[in-house]
């Protein structure tokens, strides 16, 4: 029997035959996958494999040249980025990209921009600060003055402020010291345990595979292997995707 | 002492117009990373719209300002759509050239329609001077200062405290990430152009009424000063543009009062240059860190 | 002194700093004649920096570069080309206003001896050299199977062909050592296998190839030896099969596990 990530599950994100080109150069060549509700999926692969490009196409930052993206059954691949965000996808971008000259508090507010005016924002802010006590101590500090690890927490917290149907994380380990790396991945795992559906792209495959339920291995713009994440730890398939052979 | 107080009052009044123009430059630059050379022409168009409303429709000052604001905002948004957006992804200097083209077009257009001579207001708008303890000031000066101050405080509150204001700041800092938060960047750009154009139009009407002169080429000197105000205040800084505009206005007025009106611009710009020597990124500017 | 084999290129404890960042930290490499030698490593490992120091674009902050036993560490970029090292770039840099043949001819000019007067008055030496340059360029395009495209403007060609023109231009300077910076970037599988054949063919003509490459299939298929950089330090060197199973290489690429 072929194992599958999605047997009989309630699908949050479905990507079908996604293609992206930079000029004439194809970066993503017909990628298909699905993320069911409440799961944590990871895309691993070497630099240049097309992982970040895939996320950018899902969030509308790059226009796909082919294929479809559906969020809860609704096609979103023709929508502009801000409407995709409003449809319920929150992205934690590569390199954190916090709003440096805004306070931590204002950064969090920006995360819920799409739901401005919602009376429940106060409770949501409270819940997010509960999860990130280090941010609570610094709500009035400018985000640009936070440490790298704190900025990564803020970027994740900002994503949660949208109470998204799907949380995307692009290379959360990038530039973090090993100690912080553990902490950030533990937080991601906890967020998923609390019911948030997560799709993460990660070059540090060992870390990514340890927290995820299911993993896709990308190489040269295609998914070459997919399996339960645990089974891919230490696997030859992953090693080959990074180092050939 | 009396001369000093008198010139400070005169300077603040002229300076608030520089501030309003400088604020527009800095807002547009913050969002689009473009110096909109045609922005001073929005100031001129606003002045003419106000003048037409007063002259041909017998409108009062308030109606003239509101009408000018609406009309100039449309012109400002159109300039972005026609001359900035299509060339923004090309060379960095392209919008510089295309907006300069729009600027020449609007100046010459106004000169053709209204003649190249300054147009006076009808006598109904004549300024009334008051004398309080030897200080002379006109009703228009009081109105100008009050309106200018109200606009600046209002703008600061809007940008700092409201959702849309935050969206403007977020877009200025990182366009792409702002769109990931659900901000419609195109709406923010249009909103910014409307705000910048409205500020310019109000300044245009107030200046042209105060000096009883509406002129096709009035944007040139005011535009240059508005740009200087943006740079001296620190590019992207609202407080900076406000302060620098007022400093420039007061410096000019004091030069006129104590030295000679022929040295007005020269000395004022020497002071601005001196500020830049002391603070190269402007009064409130932060040195940009390379990412 | 009798030597059985002389290294073509030796990089000796090469160090390069950018501000506080150490881009290369005492890197040693030895490349033998007629070798295909690959340099790999995660992004930002210092690979292109090493090329730039070897090619004389960045000055060294420590250590030496020897080419045929001669110290070239402080030579200028154009001298190094004249000595016999040619390179291609990560992003293709062809002259868009010149056709394919003219672009390849450009590569020959480090070999010409005409002076300004010869060129200005179109004296015999210049005319002869132009003719030779043209012949040499046409010959190269023929070997590359591109003779029929010599009059095309480079931007009209598919990506893989543009790469080949760039490699032909580098070869036109008759180098002993060819530095290729990510030659397969953006190529489709067919172009990639053509590139592989082309590189083997170039090696057959007696050239040595030093290559930076992300595509592991290409690297592992054509390289005689592979060196791995990570954060500016050489962490491994050896035959492809050794590199693929080297623990430090696996950690550099796949990340370390939690304990």
Folded structure, characterized:
Chain A is α/β, with parallel strands linked by helices and 245 residues long. Chain A has a domain at 1-77 and 203-245: 3-Layer(aba) Sandwich (Rossmann fold). Helices cover 36% and strands 26% of the residues of chain A. In chain A, the strands form two sheets. Chain A has a six-stranded mixed β-sheet with strand order 6-7-8-3-9-10, with helices on both faces. A four-stranded antiparallel β-sheet of chain A has the order 2-1-4-5, covered by helices on one side. In chain A, a hairpin with a 2-residue loop joins strand 1 (11-22) and strand 2. In chain A, helix 3 runs parallel beside helix 6 (148-160) and helix 6 (148-160) runs parallel beside helix 7. The model of chain A has no long low-confidence stretch (mean pLDDT 92). In chain B, helix 1 packs antiparallel against helix 10 and helix 2 runs antiparallel to helix 3 (61-84). With 291 residues, chain B is mainly alpha-helical. The model of chain B has no long low-confidence stretch (mean pLDDT 92). Chain B has helices spanning 2-32, 39-57, 61-84, 94-114, 139-161, 163-173, 175-180, 185-210, 218-233, 238-258, 264-278; strands at 129-132, 135-138. Chain B contains eleven helices and two strands; from the N terminus they run ααααββααααααα. Chain B has a domain at 24-218. With 259 residues, chain C is an alpha/beta fold. Chain C folds into two domains: 1-84 and 175-259, P-loop containing nucleotide triphosphate hydrolases (Rossmann fold, 3-Layer(aba) Sandwich); 97-169, no CATH class. The termini of chain C are far apart. The model of chain C has no long low-confidence stretch (mean pLDDT 88). Chains in contact: A-B, A-C. The A-C interface holds A 24-26, 46-48, 173, 178, 182, 185, 203-208, 210, 220, 233, 238-239, 242-245 and C 42-43, 158-159, 185-186, 188, 214-217, 219-220, 240-241, 243-244, 249-250, 253-258.
């Amino acid at each position: 029997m072929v194992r599958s990530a999605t047997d009989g599950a309630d699908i949050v994100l479905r990507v079908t035959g996604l293609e992206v080109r930079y000029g004439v150069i194809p970066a993503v060549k017909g990628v298909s996958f699905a993320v069911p509700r409440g799961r944590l999926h990871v895309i691993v692969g070497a630099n240049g494999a097309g992982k970040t490009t895939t996320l950018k196409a899902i969030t509308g930052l790059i226009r796909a040249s082919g294929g479809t993206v559906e969020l809860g059954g609704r096609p979103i691949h023709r929508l502009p980025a801000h409407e995709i965000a409003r449809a319920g996808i929150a992205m934690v971008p590569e390199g954190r990209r916090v709003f440096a000259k805004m306070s931590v508090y204002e950064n969090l507010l920006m995360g819920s921009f799409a739901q401005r005016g919602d009376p429940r924002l106060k409770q949501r802010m409270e819940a997010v600060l509960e999860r990130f006590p280090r941010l609570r101590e610094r709500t009035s500090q400018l985000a640009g003055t936070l440490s790298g690890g704190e900025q990564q927490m803020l970027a994740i917290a900002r994503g949660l402020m949208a109470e998204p149907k799907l949380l995307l994380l692009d290379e959360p380990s990038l530039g973090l010291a090993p100690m912080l790396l553990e902490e950030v991945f533990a937080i991601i795992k906890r967020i998923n345990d609390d019911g948030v559906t997560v799709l993460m792209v990660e070059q540090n495959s060992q870390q990514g595979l340890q927290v995820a339920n299911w993993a896709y291995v990308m190489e040269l713009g295609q998914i070459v292997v997919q399996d339960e994440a645990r089974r891919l730890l230490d696997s030859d398939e992953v090693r080959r995707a990074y180092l050939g052979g | 002492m009396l001369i000093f107080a008198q010139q400070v009052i005169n300077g603040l009044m002229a300076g608030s117009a520089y501030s309003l123009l400088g604020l527009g430059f800095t807002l547009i630059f913050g969002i689009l990373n473009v110096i909109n050379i045609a922005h001073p022409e929005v100031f001129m168009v606003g002045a003419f719209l106000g003048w037409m409303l007063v002259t041909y429709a017998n409108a009062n000052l308030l109606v003239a300002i509101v009408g000018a604001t609406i009309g100039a905002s449309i012109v400002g948004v159109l300039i972005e759509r026609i001359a900035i957006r299509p060339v923004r992804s090309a060379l960095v200097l392209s919008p510089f050239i295309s907006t300069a083209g729009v600027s020449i077009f609007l100046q010459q257009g106004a000169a053709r329609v209204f003649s190249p001579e300054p147009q006076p207001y009808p006598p109904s708008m004549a300024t009334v001077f008051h004398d309080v303890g030897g200080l002379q000031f006109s009703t228009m000066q009081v109105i100008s200062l009050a309106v200018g101050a109200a606009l600046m405080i209002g703008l600061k509150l809007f940008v700092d405290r409201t959702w849309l204001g935050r969206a403007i700041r977020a877009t200025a800092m990182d366009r792409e990430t702002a769109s990931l938060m659900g901000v419609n960047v195109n709406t923010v750009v249009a909103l910014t152009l409307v705000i910048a154009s409205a500020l310019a139009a109000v300044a245009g009407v107030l200046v042209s009424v105060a000096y009883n002169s509406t002129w096709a080429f009035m944007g040139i000197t005011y535009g240059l000063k508005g740009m200087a105000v943006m740079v001296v205040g620190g590019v992207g800084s609202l407080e900076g543009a406000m302060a620098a505009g007022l400093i420039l206005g007061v410096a000019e007025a004091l030069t006129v009062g104590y030295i000679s009106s022929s040295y007005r611009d020269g000395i004022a710009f020497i002071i601005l240059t001196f500020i830049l020597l002391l603070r190269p990124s402007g009064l409130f500017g932060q040195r940009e860190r390379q990412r | 002194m009798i030597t059985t084999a002389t290294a073509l290129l030796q990089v000796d404890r090469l160090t390069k700093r950018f501000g506080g960042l150490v881009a290369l930290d005492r890197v040693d490499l030895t490349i033998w004649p007629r070798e295909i030698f690959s340099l790999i490593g995660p992004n930002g490992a210092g690979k292109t920096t090493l090329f730039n120091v070897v090619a004389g674009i960045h000055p060294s902050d420590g250590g030496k570069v020897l080419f045929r036993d001669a110290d070239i560490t402080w030579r200028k970029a154009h001298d190094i080309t004249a000595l016999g090292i040619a390179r291609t770039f990560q992003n293709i840099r062809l002259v868009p206003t010149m056709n394919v043949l003219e672009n390849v001819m450009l590569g020959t000019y480090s070999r010409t001896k005409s002076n300004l007067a010869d060129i200005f008055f179109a004296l015999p030496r210049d005319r002869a050299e132009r003719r030779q340059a043209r012949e040499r360029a046409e010959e190269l395009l023929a070997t590359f199977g591109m003779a029929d495209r010599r009059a095309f403007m480079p931007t009209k060609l598919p990506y893989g062909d543009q790469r080949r023109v760039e490699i032909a231009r580098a070869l036109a300077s008759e180098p002993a050592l060819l530095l290729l910076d990510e030659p397969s970037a953006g190529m489709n599988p067919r172009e990639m296998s053509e590139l592989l054949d082309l590189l083997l063919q170039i090696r057959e003509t007696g050239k040595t190839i030093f290559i930076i490459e992300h595509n592991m299939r290409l690297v592992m298929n054509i390289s005689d030896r592979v060196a791995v950089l990570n954060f500016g330090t050489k962490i491994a060197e050896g035959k492809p099969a050794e590199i693929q199973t080297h623990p430090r290489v696996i950690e550099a690429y796949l990340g370390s596990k939690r304990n």
